[in-house]
Amino acid sequence: MPFTLATWNINSVRLREGLVLRLLEEEAPDILCLQECKSPVEKIPIEGFQALGYIHMVARGQKGYNGVAILSKLPIEDAGDLDHAGLGHARHVAARLESGVTIHNFYVPAGGDKPDRAVNEKFGQKLDYLTDMRNDFHAEKPAKSILVGDLNIAPREDDVWNHKQLLKVVSHTPIEVEHLAETQDAGGWVDITRQDIPEGNLYSWWSYRAPDWDAADKGRRLDHVWATPDISNAGHSSRIRRDVRGWEQPSDHAPVFATFDL
């Protein structure tokens, strides 16, 4: 049965409940994975989502920071969570569909401003988080799985507005790109977005610091949809709703979509 999923760093699900409802009304994906919900699970405003048919949710939350949630029209069961790097943060949750497909929703640490773990603890935490992801995938090879989320790394040269200028900027430094590649390789993950759109600049995030974000277009592709090789050929119709970044009081991320015929 085909299903469409979307992944979106919402940057506060309570503050931007109206934007989530608008997206669900306009797009009606079967599954929506949210990151940076910034809410305890019990305070996520589920009533409006349920009214639109999203009667299933698995989530992990904490007050004011992090937080991940999977909203679904399709029945899902909670498939657990992982605390990589021992941070005690709500950065991962997994859900399993009745078909046996597991969906992993990740929010990888942003890493702070300086790409040097000697002077920036947050950068070290980011690298450690990715290392733990890699080690987990080595230890237990994922199968029949989809991984989505804000991975906070734009790996390719055409995933950023200026490769050379961003080589020393957190999210596109060589060490981060290397760590992400090792994580992807460890699980055999296929980048579904780039499988569908193999060439050209592609972004899902634009900084709040640029009031003319659309015209300047200094974006980065930080949000990803991956799948294991056994189901990657079922993925198609990838796209990014860039215009959502221009909605009133928006998140700085745009939602990324993919459809799977499974």
Provide an overview of this structure:
The protein is of the alpha+beta class and 262 residues long. It has a single domain (2-261), classed as 4-Layer Sandwich (Deoxyribonuclease I, Chain A). The protein contains 6 helices and 14 strands. A 6-stranded mixed sheet has the order 3-4-2-1-14-13. Helix 3 packs parallel to helix 4 (174-187). The chain is globular, with a radius of gyration of 17 Å. 46% of the residues are buried.
The N- to C-terminal Cα distance equals 5 Å
Helix and strand sequence: EHEHEEEEEHEHEHEHEEEE
CATH architecture: 4-Layer Sandwich
By CATH's scheme, which homologous superfamily applies? Endonuclease/exonuclease/phosphatase
Total DSSP E strands: 14
Q: What number is the mean pLDDT? A: 98
* Tally of separate domains: 1
Q: Work out the strand percent.
A: 25-35%
Largest sheet: 6 strands, mixed
CATH topology group: Deoxyribonuclease I, Chain A
> How do the strands of the widest beta sheet line up side by side?
3-4-2-1-14-13
Radius of gyration computed on alpha carbons: 17 Å
CATH class: Alpha Beta
Low-confidence stretches: none
**How does the overall form come out from the CA principal axes?**
globular
Structural class: alpha+beta
Provide a count of the helices: 6
